[in-house]
Write a structure and sequence with these properties.
single chain, alpha/beta, eight-stranded mixed β-sheet, five-stranded mixed β-sheet, 17% strand
Amino acid sequence: MITDYTTALAFIHGRTKFKKLPTLDRMRRFLHELGDPQLKVNGIHVAGTNGKGSTVANLRELFMADGLTVGTFTSPFITRFNERISVDGQPISDADLVELVQMIQPVVAKLDAELPTGGPTEFEIITAMMFCYFATQPIDIAIVEVGLGGLYDSTNVFTPKVSVITTIGYDHMQILGHTLTAIATQKAGIIKAGVPIMVGRLPAEAQAVMVDTAAKQAAPLQTLGQDFTTRLLPPQGWEERFDFNGIDQHFKALTTPLLGDYQVDNAALALAAYLTYHQQQSLPVQARDIRQALSQTIWPGRFERLNESPLILIDGAHNEPAVQELATTLKSRFKQQTVYVIFAVLADKQHTKMIQTLAQLANVQLILTQFAGPNARQVTAPATLEAELPSGYTAPIFADWQSALVHVTSEMSSDDVLLMTGSLYFISAVRAYFKAE
């Protein structure tokens, strides 16, 4: 019986996490029973290995600057479950969430009884809640983030106005495949007939999949670095600066407060998708609004400052491609400082490569620890991480991250930097700890 917020969340989280079925038939049947709310959603669909969340955040700010009401669907959450379904950056209320679950539960029970493979999974239920919510709210546009992959992701049941694929790299290989071509094929599954597709800087074999899929679907393809371009400018303070050229527009000295060259790519992709949507809908574009929107885009947990002195940061790098980008930013931005990196990671990630990438940075001192995994997901033991360090490299290990934090803050000087990274779930716990103080 769903009576309140606690029982509603228990119902959602109590569902099967994943079913290996290469089909969206169950999701489509589920939504049909709910009145096909996805058909009422005007949206943009965002897939990719990394960069989805930041791209969604940029798109939200850009459309809100037009005076539009913008729904966003993202995962995972950083502080509270409700963040996953938001309108104009405000998470869904507990009351609305409970009402949605109460409405959906009987349909889930019916499908549990009727379908040989069982009823909807946890993520299918959350996706259905999102479509039902956005179909009944006075929103002008929804920015929908793919959960995993694309082709068989439960969000892949609506036709967006524009599709976006941010990056392609090695993550979730046990589900998506072990080659970039296989992973790219899954991501390219969101490309729809005739719908413009924006893609980021992809490895050649992944780009080939995009070109081929877009051609088969007669979907106009625009690629960052080819059809629209950026030029990095010297940073001034805590921001990135860049010029943008493409989609019949040219902007000089745009800024984003999200650090890292890859964040410029995310902002450029969002801007390209936004401009394409405006061309498609014959809407006017205001340079001043674009400049303002990108300059105020924030996305929790991405090089986020939790403390100024000493400087304490969190970053949600949770796979090898993201750690590579993180290392690049540490080398360019913090090369004059000692950076203490408290690292904790889920067991199903490429933690050997992640550890070795960070250990190669001359100014980085690694500290290895662990955190309480979500929904009993396995976390890599610090001793396992220690065994994966390069020969001759030593790093202190701690049984819990709180002890690691106390140790580092007592060791570091006011000029040093402390960064906590390795998992979005880890930084979510850290963020909650600091924000509660």
